[in-house]
Amino acid sequence: MKGLRTGLGLLALVLGLGVGSARPVLADDTLDRGIGSEWSSLDPQVNFDAAAGWIQMDVYEGLISFDGTGKVIPGAAEKWDVSSDGLTYTFHLRDGLKWSNGDALVAQDFVNSVLRTINKDTASDKGYYFSSVMQVKGAKALIDGTATDPATLGVTAPDARTVVIQLLAPQPEMLQLMGAFQIAPLHGPSFKQYGAGVFIDPAHVVSNGAYIIKEVVPQSHVLLARNPNYWDAAHVKIPFVKYHVTEDVATELKRFQAGEIDVTYDIPLNQIAALKASDPAEVQIGPSTEVIYYSFNLTHEALKNIDLRRALSLAIDRDTLESKIVKGEGIPDYSFAGGFDANYHGPQIAEATMSQADREALAKQLYAKAGYGPDKPLKLNIIATVAEDAKRRAEGVALMWKKVLGVETDVQPMERKAWLDAFYAGGWDVFSDDLVGDYPGPETFLAYMRPSTEPGYNWVKPEYNAAMDAAAKIADLPTRYEALAKAEKILLDDYIFAPLEIVPNRHLVKTTVHGWSNSAAGYNNSQFLSLD
Amino acid sequence: MLRFIGRRLWEGALTLAALVTLTFFVMRLAPGGPFSRDRKISPEILDHIKAAFHLDEPMWAQFGRYVWGLLHLDFGPSLRFRDYSVGELIAAGLPYSLTIGFWAIVIAALVGIGLGLAGALRRNSGVDYLAGTVGVVGIAVPIFVIGPLAQVVFALKLGWVPVGGSDQGWRSLVLPVVVLSLPNIAYISRLTRGSMIEVLRENYVRTARAKGIGARRTLMVHALKGALLPVVAYLGPATAGVITGSILIETIFAVPGIGRHFVDAALNRDYPLVMGITLLYGGLLIVFNILTDLVRGGLDPRLRGHG
Predict the structure, then answer these.
(1) What share of chain B is helix, strand, coil (3-state, %, to 5)?
(2) Are residues A442 and A332 in the same domain?
(3) Is there a domain that residue A154 lies in?
(4) A501 and A513 belong to one structural domain
(5) Shortest CA gap A42–chain B (Å)
(6) Number of C-alpha atoms within 13 angstroms, CB side, residue A464?
(7) Please, what's the b/e burial string for A366-400 (b: 16 or more CB within 10 A of its CB; e: otherwise)?
(8) Which residue in A165, A394, A415, B171 has the most C-beta neighbors within 10 A?
(9) How many domains does chain A have?
(10) A125, A256, A386: which to substitute to probe chain B, counting the most B Cβ within 10 Å?
(11) B178-223 tens-digit pLDDT
């Protein structure tokens, strides 16, 4: 009897569960967008993920924004001035800005946002942008605790419609950074009343973007609806936007084909060619700000020899690797920081203009010169992640090294967190590395390569540091780019890594969605899109 | 009876305590941490994050803090999903896993036992071969093959049900439930068939027939009770496994259950989330094992009183 009663109780529990919302998914007033894995946070001062950034850009509006092509456009600020030394940015807010609940939006809301981001109790990764990347005055001292007075921060609101940001060094890419890592304003009263939980609470969250949050179901979706109090609400065409979590790319493709999703997060590698042939108008592929390169371990005796490193780099046929082996539509790459901003004319590795046959001939010579050959083959390992494209790429490179030089390579795929730790632990000869730039300019990449004594890097090059320091003082962007190109030359000439490819953004977009563009920044705010 | 349950619950609590301790320390042996990043963030910021989650404390203090929280039913914050606590994530995901798992196990039990009985009673007939084929296919063909195939046929070609997601009510449940039930149908029908054939040869069945009890009554009352013992033994742990969410099913059909969290949490080194789901799974397994023993005791007098 007891068992029966327990069973009935369980039955009632299960039958009583309401699963699923009342709104039909196929309604054409809704734009259904894929975001891959679940967002890590909807808290605009904490979120660090690109995909969650798409939701954030729909729900909140920073001082400036990006259009679909990645161009900086006015956001909450209608215009801005930059001082001649490049150290002071003054933003002028639009007149009559409102929060979604009708409250007036004031300049201090932006200041409070920065203060909350760098507050240690918020424990936000993003704080580092203000102290290290943008180098906002006073940010570092507030973060490391040597200063506590919020008035010392170089982000201020002299009046209700003006935000002033003061920098320690000129940062001509400031607006790009503010676009890629949005400074969303903070609505004080709702945050004060409900705490950080308010950002996932549709009943109480207050935002200032084109959309407001209607529904949040972890691991499933976030539903947004138009914000009637948005200053440009009249031009927001799509009433609802739904972001769907679909971890499995093959399932996402089927959901797209069944009409459940209008824009996918990615395309399965093995389907790209077929889809390009059958539905070319739906396949949207363009470069992102991610570069993949194979780092050589400079603490290993053999790899201290630059001829050997150069030979390994030359022996990789990047075109074949991408088009025949990885098949992910990556763009073969011969530089580190170039290929993202057309205005940057940086260097490429010296042999970029040679044919692959000539490169391989030279690689063989250098390999022999370094003292290796059929009797004494070089033995290496490559540490890569278990991601499908990463494994294919590593196997492909190993194959080419074997074929051209006779190198014996052991490919060791690892799950992501172990791979991240392996870099610092050493033990690798070649590390399948990648870097996602903050914005499509060269400096975000080059700054990352500053010689460091941290385990893993081991590159000692005072000339490079000096060249980067010199560039950092220049406020004028074209001049700064020239200085950065000099630094990149020093970097590439040392062959401390072999650049391989620029990773693409890959999406399937229904032809009923209008206004979609590809940009390296990767933002297509829903407010600029429309549906048939 | 009550003493039996009491003793089993006490043993279960000890098992859970061992599970918590082992999982807590073994998990931290894996390389990489929850905040390993592929970019260098400044050390002060990293310190703030670690301090906010008490990861800067010595291991024993972290363990003490965790156990203290558990005693207050607090599973701690998720390190990967910053907006949620582990309790909230489980509360949000469990209903989906539970619903799909419940229906899958009900269908599997009904169809599996039916097929198994039919096979045992009409050996080498068409029904038996059909049941055998279903069994072999269900066991041999993995879910990650049947799942996508079912999506193509029933969602893409026929359009009867959605490919995945959870926003079309019961229609969203059909594919995951059916696909999840298939391997279980297979196991249950094989178990039932084998055990029924064995039971039919038992003395007590022959005795029952000899006493003049009708064939149908012998079968449905006397033989079936005995034949279901191994099935019940299988159903207990299988139910615990199925309702805590199938990782494959939830990934293939984009179901927002907790099965997916289990793998993701381990990959992301989201320590509290791994702990929470391990505990939940362990607890359910213990409860279902106790239930199984109770039901088996009800079915088989020989098992009573020995516990």
Answers:
(1) 75, 0, 25
(2) yes
(3) yes
(4) no
(5) 7
(6) 19
(7) bbeebebeeeebbebbbbbbeeebbbbbbbbbbeb
(8) A165
(9) 2
(10) A125
(11) 999 998 999 899 899 999 988 888 888 888 878 888 777 787 778 8
How many CB pairs (< 8 A) connect A and B? 188
The identity of residue B83, as a single letter, is D
- A344-388: pLDDT as tens digits: 999 999 889 999 999 999 999 999 999 999 999 999 999 999 989
Token look-up 């004031």 returns A106
Residue ranges in A78-219 assigned as alpha helix (H)? 107-118, 127-128, 139-144, 174-180, 188-194
Least confident range from A8-12, A372-376, B16-20, B34-38: namely: A8-12
Residues 6+ apart with CB under 8 A from A349: A313, A334, A335, A492, A495, A499
| Per-residue tokens: A348 | 């490429």
pLDDT at A18: 41
What residue of A is the nearest CA neighbor of B168? A20
My answer on whether A33 and A126 are in the same domain is: yes
Using CA atoms, how far apart are residues B262 and B99, in angstroms rounded to an integer? 18
Specify whether the CB–CB gap between A447 and A409 falls below 8 A.
no
User: Cα torsion at A363, A368, A374, A375 (round to 10°)?
Assistant: -160
Is the minimum CB–CB distance between A248 and chain B shorter than 8 Å? yes
Q: Which domain CATH number covers A42?
A: 3.40.190.10
Containing H/E element for B248? helix B247-252
- Is residue A452 scored above 70 in pLDDT? no
How remote is the C-alpha of A12 from its chain's centroid?
A: 46
Same domain, A234 and A353: no
Q: Under an 8 A CB cutoff, do B148 and A199 touch? A: no
State which residue of chain B sits closest to A254, comparing Cα positions: B163
Predicted local confidence at residue A266, as pLDDT: 94
In chain B, residues with a C-beta closer than 8 Å to the C-beta of A220 are 165-167, 254, 256
Residue of B nearest to A145 (CA): B44
- What are residue B63's phi and psi, to 5 degrees? -65, -45
* A467 and A519 within one domain: no
Contact B152 A24 (CB under 8 A): no
Report which DSSP code applies to A235.
G
Q: What is the pLDDT of residues A439-448, one digit of tens each?
A: 889 999 998 8
How wide is the angle at C-alpha A11 spanned by C-alphas A7 and A12, nearest 5°? Answer: 120
Q: Report chain B's mean pLDDT, rounded to a whole number.
A: 87
Are A19 and B169 in contact (CB < 8 Å)? Answer: yes
For residue A57, tell me if it sits in a domain: yes
Host domain of residue A93:
3-247+509-531
- The reply to whether A243 and A314 lie within a common domain is no
Domains and CATH numbers, chain B: 95-272 (1.10.3720.10)
Q: How far is B198 from chain A, CA to nearest CA, in Å? A: 27
Q: How much is the average pLDDT of A233-252?
A: 94
If 0-12 CB within 10 Å is exposed, 13-18 middle and 19+ buried, where does residue A207 land? buried
Res. A1: pLDDT tops 70: no
pLDDT tens digit string along A126-179? 888 898 889 999 999 999 889 999 999 999 999 999 999 999 999 999 999 998
Question: What residues contact residue A8 under an 8 Å CB cut-off, 6+ apart?
Answer: none
pLDDT in tens, B237-280: 888 888 776 888 999 999 999 888 888 888 888 999 999 999 99
| Together in a domain, A47 and A67 | yes
Tell me if B193 sits within 8 A of B120, measured CB to CB. yes
A190/A303 same-domain check: no
CB contact under 8 A, A143 and B44: yes
In a domain, A27, yes or no: yes
Which among B7, B24, B10, B4 has a CA at the least distance from the CA of B276? Answer: B24
pLDDT, tens only, A58-98: 999 999 999 988 899 999 999 999 999 999 999 999 999 99
